[in-house]
Amino acid sequence: MKALKIPEATITRLSIYSRFLKRLDKKGITTVSSGDIAEGVGVSPAQVRKDLAYFGEFGTRGVGYNVKDLIRYTVKILGLSEPWNLVMVGAGNLGSALVTYREFKDRGFSIVGVFDNDLTKIGKRIADLEVLPLEEMPEMVKEYNVRIGIIAVPSKAAQDIADIMIKSGLEALLNFAPISLNVPDYVEVRNVDLSVKLEILTFNLALREK
Amino acid sequence: MKALKIPEATITRLSIYSRFLKRLDKKGITTVSSGDIAEGVGVSPAQVRKDLAYFGEFGTRGVGYNVKDLIRYTVKILGLSEPWNLVMVGAGNLGSALVTYREFKDRGFSIVGVFDNDLTKIGKRIADLEVLPLEEMPEMVKEYNVRIGIIAVPSKAAQDIADIMIKSGLEALLNFAPISLNVPDYVEVRNVDLSVKLEILTFNLALREK
DNA sequence: TAGATTGTTAATCGATTAACAATC
DNA sequence: TAGATTGTTAATCGATTAACAATC
């Protein structure tokens, strides 16, 4: 049992619901309906209930969901009950931005090491981290129990860096380079493409002209 | 006719194909099959052909696609034949990274103005741009024919900034704040959420434990 | 109780894939 | 011609939505 396949879109939305709920909680709101959540994040109420139903029964019929409880449940489902240590390769502008990115901290992510193979960058400081040579990654991965790595290097270098990160013991990669990485089956990869969404906008605007 | 609805996933992939093809072109490769593209970006060959079929017949049976031609077609479809000027609000770390982001330039995007309402940031320089007060946005939007704006401010400020950007004449927003924006129907919005993909990774890793 | 809202099933909708005729 | 690969249709697959019984 529990062989039920969960759509990745459901996980994506769960992450969005979870953060929306935290904002409600901050405002002192204690109860929400699926309709409230739906309106807040721009999906249908049925969608919200269906997404939650994959994981259990969290609401009360006739009443709705307790905000604090639902935050706890969504955080648990997403694997965020415990904090995660991350390492990152690439000490460029994007890398620097990610190290100080507030949203990561808020969700329990902590970048514990920044690496680069550019000698001019090694030794530099980004926030309170010293940029380290790649050779030191395996040690840090082991010491800080790191399972996830962020790739913030140019496309050309991304595959080589991915190989090194995997050899260092990482099981999951968040890749900001706009290329498709080849990795062993046990390694999870997700790409964040900063340019694709922009091109969806240009596509839509270009259509308007006609 | 031509009322055929095109899936947004198709546009997303087209953007990815387009950039993959440019890399092939740089390597001097002149012809590709749908299978080559599929393998290069991690989808099925049928998917590639179907995606292209929404827009025309670009290949030669028994041969494949001419790389340079297909680049031209995909670029045209995505509305990227002409360069786009962008404005951005938010001169923080993320904003700074985006101004210098190579991938944007490569695809014909140019950030022509950076704005902030933080007095300590106004007047500062990011790359070769001076950070300007929001009041100057309408003028710049008009002068540079800007239609798309980037939101790189904290979540709290995002809705207010979006309202101002729309009033300044923008028709499309690329939103890096992890909240759902309320905008008029004619305004296109896409969110880039840096944290969601990371939470898909933690979800998957957390599943492994069991 | 009456009103509200969940949890869940079945119906609908849409996207992906398989398969093959067309054709280079 | 034989082999290869496209363009396209039909079949499959999967996700969303509508609807309603359950129940607070």
UniProtKB/TrEMBL annotation, chains A, B:
PANTHER family: REDOX-SENSING TRANSCRIPTIONAL REPRESSOR REX, REDOX-SENSING TRANSCRIPTIONAL REPRESSOR REX 1. NCBIfam families: PRK05472.1-3, PRK05472.2-1, PRK05472.2-2, PRK05472.2-3, PRK05472.2-4, PRK05472.2-5. It holds the Pfam family Put_DNA-bind_N. The gene is rex. Keywords: Cytoplasm, DNA-binding, NAD, Repressor, Transcription, Transcription regulation. GO terms for molecular function: DNA binding; DNA-binding transcription factor activity. It is found in: Cytoplasm. The keyword Transcription applies. GO terms for biological process: negative regulation of DNA-templated transcription; response to redox state. It comes from Desulforamulus aquiferis. SUPFAM superfamilies: NAD(P)-binding Rossmann-fold domains, Winged helix' DNA-binding domain. Modulates transcription in response to changes in cellular NADH/NAD(+) redox state. The keyword Transcription applies. Homodimer. This is Redox-sensing transcriptional repressor Rex. Belongs to the transcriptional regulatory Rex family.
